[in-house]
Amino acid sequence: MLEPKKLSFKKTLYPMILLPVLLAACGGNTGASKAEEPATQSRLLLGTVCRITLYAGVSDEAFQAAFQRIAEIEKAMSVNLPDSEVSIINEAAGTGEWTQVSQDTFTVVEKALEIAGMSSGGFDPSVGPLVKLWGVGTENARIP
Prior knowledge:
two-stranded antiparallel sheet, elongated
């Protein structure tokens, strides 16, 4: 008859030792001989440096697609671009005129208003006039 310690060792410790070894040997092996190294690229977008790191599917096309998407968002929602959808909304503010916007801009404004309501004024998406007055995000940023 086996001693309890040996029985416990075989039933408990062996699986605890073998399981990580087996997972390390088999886990994530997709047939590739070597894991792909992550790659990073940076661009100036949204008034700041945007850095993207890809951990899989690294290609110039993937980086280009990601940065293109960010540029589309910037073009639609930047308060520093006079022809952006957000700038057009701000120009029409108080006039009673409707402004047609993309689904992206609509979703962001809708979410901003929802968060403003939940934050009891802690978050206010209508600070555009102050942002413009202070020059936030421009080379002329200042406190008036």
